[in-house]
Design a protein that fits this description.
membrane, signal, 73 residues, transmembrane helix, transmembrane
């Protein structure tokens, strides 16, 4: 157990900085003048990020509602 905690802490504090964008995508997005593609990519990232939170929140709400209404009966 102690080894797992040490490994977890080391992963939290020691990380490598990486670029998660391919060279071609980055070149296209940086060279575009209107920046419409970059805005589209950013909007897509926001949608991809928001959907799991909405789903987890919805499931949490239904679980809360189920347990809360069963206590009142």
């Amino acid at each position: 157990m102690k080894n797992k905690v040490i490994l977890f802490v080391s992963f939290c504090f020691f990380f490598l900085e990486t670029n998660a964008q391919c060279a071609m995508c980055r070149a296209v997005l940086e060279s575009e003048e209107g920046q419409t593609a970059a805005e589209g990519i950013n909007d897509g990232i926001v949608y991809l990020m928001a959907i799991p939170y909405i789903l987890v929140g919805g499931v949490g709400y239904f679980i809360y509602r189920k347990y809360n209404t069963s206590k009142k009966k």
